[in-house]
């Protein structure tokens, strides 16, 4: 394996780093209080498509993503706190602080907080797809208590490279 082709061709480097303070509140809340708080740490747009990184803070109510796969991106999960069930395509395992799951394109995966306690994780997508639109659609559906038909769910999922199994 080798380094990718250069994306920066300058000779001196640039002062272009951006910091996001830990004290900054969530960018999105999905569900009822306390719901899931989503922090957009690095979006595909802000990383020039390199990756998308999100802090996913789940409340004590059960929730998460049922088994699915993506065709255009990898997804990785790193458990920051609590207990999160992780699905690797074959089995659900209990992930705890420090556990990591990498899923390549086409890999079936899911995650759930069923512990009855808050839990948080980092979710990393590569390359950086516009996942914020998908997360915001889920928040809108939850906030308005909308019931989608199977066809509407399929359309939403396919628009966001999400294929349920």
Keywords, please?
165 residues; mainly beta; Jelly Rolls; 11 strands; 6-stranded antiparallel β-sheet; 5-stranded antiparallel β-sheet; globular
Structure description:
By secondary structure, this protein is mainly beta. The protein has a single domain (28-164), classed as Jelly Rolls. 14% of the residues lie in helices and 37% in strands. It is built from 2 helices and 11 strands, in the order E-E-E-E-E-E-E-E-E-E-H-H-E. The strands form 2 sheets. The protein has a 6-stranded antiparallel beta sheet, covered by helices on one side. Strands 7-6-9-4-11 form a 5-stranded antiparallel beta sheet, covered by helices on one side. The protein is globular and about 55 Å long. The two termini are 32 Å apart. The mean pLDDT is 96.
Give the rounded overall mean pLDDT. 96
| CATH architecture descriptor text | Sandwich
The name of the CATH superfamily reads Jelly Rolls
Strand tally:
11
Number of domains: 1
The percent of residues in helical segments reads 10-25%
Radius of gyration from the alpha-carbon trace, in angstroms: 17 Å
> What is the subunit arrangement here?
single chain
The CATH class is identified as Mainly Beta
Task: Output the CATH topology.
Answer: Jelly Rolls
Number of helices: 2
Can you list the strand order of the major beta sheet?
A: 1-2-3-10-5-8
Distance between the termini: 32 Å
Shape: globular
């Amino acid at each position: 394996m080798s380094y990718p082709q250069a994306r920066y061709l300058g000779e001196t480097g640039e002062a272009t780093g951006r910091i996001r303070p830990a004290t900054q509140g969530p960018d999105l809340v999905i569900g009822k209080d306390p719901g899931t708080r989503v922090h957009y740490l690095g979006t595909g747009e802000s990383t020039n498509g390199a990756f998308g990184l999100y802090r996913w803070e789940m409340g004590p109510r059960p929730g998460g993503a049922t088994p699915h796969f993506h065709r255009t991106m990898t997804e990785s999960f790193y458990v920051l706190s609590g207990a999160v069930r992780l699905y690797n395509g074959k089995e659900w395992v209990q992930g705890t602080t420090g556990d990591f799951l990498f899923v390549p394109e086409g890999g079936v995966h899911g995650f759930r907080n069923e512990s009855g306690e808050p839990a948080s994780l980092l979710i990393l997508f590569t390359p950086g797809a516009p996942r914020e639109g998908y997360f915001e659609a889920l928040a809108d559906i939850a906030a308005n208590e909308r019931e989608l038909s199977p066809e509407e769910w399929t359309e939403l999922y396919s628009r966001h490279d999400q294929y349920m199994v």
